[in-house]
Design goal:
two-stranded antiparallel ribbon; about 25% strand; five-stranded antiparallel beta sheet; mainly beta
């Protein structure tokens, strides 16, 4: 597989000032009880991982765009407690960047463990 076939996903998820209904790639930081992304969090897309910066931003390069819709999943460990979250499904763009939908911490969709073809 050539390097050109691995598109770049530049997902600058800024977890600072927008509401969940606001700009793509942002998490609700206006609700005081809502946890936000920080450097205690790891973002994963298609088994590629990156630590979130202290200001809530992250960029995950070189994610393949050949898998249909994907989710950005987040795991944060704070004060011995593990928090998980995810974005809504989105489609990666070959050789481009993507604005990731808002990431919410809380209940998550289970990751499929098997596929059966009948």
């Amino acid at each position: 597989m050539s390097r050109r076939s691995l598109p770049t996903l530049v997902a600058a998820a800024v977890a600072t000032i927008a509401s969940v209904a606001g700009a793509p790639g942002r998490i609700d930081a206006q609700t005081p009880a809502a946890p936000t992304l920080d450097d205690s969090c790891i973002v994963s897309i298609l088994n590629r991982n990156i630590r979130v910066k202290p200001n809530g931003t992250w960029v995950l390069p070189n994610v393949p765009a050949t898998f249909g819709q994907v989710r950005a999943r987040v795991t944060c460990v704070r004060d011995g407690q593990t928090l998980a979250g995810e974005s809504a499904p989105f489609t990666l763009t070959a050789d481009g960047s993507v604005d990731v939908p808002p990431i919410t911490l809380g209940a998550t969709t289970p990751i499929p463990s098997a596929i059966a073809v009948t």
